[in-house]
Amino acid sequence: MTEVTAAPATAPVSPAATARLLAEAARAVDAPDLVLAVSRNGVRTVHTGGSAEPGPVPRELMAYELGSASKPYAGLLLARLVAQGRVRYEDRAADLLAPGFPVHPAVRRITLRHLLTHTSGLPGLPADFYPQAVPRWSTDPYGGYPADRVVRSFLRARPRHRPGTRWRYSNFAVSVLGHTLAAATGTPWEVLLHQQVLAPLGLDATRVRPGPDGTDAVGHRRDGTPVPALDTGGFTAAGAVRATPLDLLTFLEAHTGGAADSPTDSSLATALTEVTRPVLRRGLRHAHTHTLTWFQHPTPYGPVLFHAGATLGQQAFLGFRPGTGLAVAATATRRVHRADTFVATAYGLLAETR
């Protein structure tokens, strides 16, 4: 187990106290590899551990699968393209993706905002996804469903609800957003994400494909058996990002304004502000608040914005408190299960610490 800390003279909470907090939190999580990382105004404390023997590459320098925690990257990309005037939130996806193609009237009304905010009326995954996925559900459910099939499924979809009227979490919708932005800009998604988000923020250890041998964390089933690297097929925008915990902190620091080198590009600065603004409420008495890309909860210390993700053998948590400089990133290499404590532990570091 290792602890890597950095301490400024003006830190409101000492690095030693933060290190103790992370070490205590880590005891609640059972995983072969675990990283808990906190940034306070750009000053970082990183705790690594787990039940597996450490490898030659330090855990905080390994790239972890983010799963659905990839979606804030897609949201920031959309917000920046809007700030640049290249697309609009109210642009209709079908018109950008396949101009003139006959689609269901409800599909015609689906906008980029609907896709990103899970209000498109689309299901979580296409209806024809499951027959090909079920036989390999625990090994490779997405790899056999390529990008062109995602697009075709969207163009022939029959949304269950009128766009903009109900919230339903949808990997399908965010994946369609990715393909739509690629079509609108004439740039492949991976290239577009790198140009507009990763490179400007200095996220050199973030990617959407496995890296060189030995640089990617290995996921595990609940029983500890290793699982292969995730292939997201045509669902790249919804869940393909891989990043080191240190890069995750860099990404979050850009949102909090806590890093010394906050973005100076006006469109990126505008986008970072836009994705933290609440845009919808849902649930009983509208208790649940969402921004374009983040879940938002109230806490005694102010609102927290966060997103979690899971793949076949890994988990990730990203969160921050706007305007405070506090950010939390966490990764673990064990598949989520019913009694899992990972997300609750990471969330507690964000919401319950001053």
From TrEMBL:
Domain Beta-lactamase-related positions: 25-340
Keywords: Hydrolase
EC number of this enzyme: 3.1.1.103
GO MF entry, a single one: hydrolase activity
InterPro entries per record: AmpC-like, Beta-lactam-related, Beta-lactam/transpept-like
The protein's name: Serine hydrolase domain-containing protein
